[in-house]
Design a protein that fits this description.
Length: about 260
Amino acid sequence: MRRLFPVTDMTAGPAAPTAPAGPAHEDGGWSLDALADAYAYPEGGGPWLRANMVSSLDGAGQHGGRSQPLSSDTDMRIFGTLRGLADVIVVGAETVRLEGYRPARAREAFAERRAAAGQGPAPVIAVVTGSLDLDFSLPLFTAPLVPTLVLTGSGAPAERVRAAREAGAEVLFAGDGARVDPARALAALTERGLRRQLTEGGPRLLGQFVAAGVLDELCLTISPTMTAGDAQRIAGGPPVAVPTRFRVASVLERDGFLFTRYLRS
């Protein structure tokens, strides 16, 4: 793993170390501790919404309906690290269905760090859905380490709300009618003390967060692949009136994959 940006020592020669302090992973990559330091949430009490997405060189956010074909082993290590740092993972219902979401698990590698930050053993998963068209018999709802949250609108079908609760999920209303308001959804999570927020999409949900102006950070893996076709980009939906500007915070590289972080300007 190489750090391409920021350059930490402008006078360092080619042999200068490119990883933060901490033992290296056995394959020569960064350790999980080093990755956790590199991707640490900002200090302070306010909420912070981070997105983690992957894109091909030609802009596809998925291939065959899933993001996995664009990924790599290092990408999955970063994926796990971001989960290990988060209080809550916010995800759209379509992504839950397509990606086969399961409950987040407690990982020993992050146990001490999470305990020191006052976090539970594993992040909460919060599913955003207006219709509640979900299979509530799945382990995501019936057997999570911490109860799964369902974020929906006040006009959601009563029988589906009841089914979610009977399965063990907690239902939070964050919108009028069937629509979920992105800002209200994140506020509801923050009120529960879930301020370190991570969204893994899908594109429609990320597009809603961008349009609402609530996305603070984008962690984007640029996969050295070309897919052609007509796959969705990482964010979809109606365009914003003025493009939202982000600034680059860091760029890492391994095996041709670029692991970038952008912060809202």
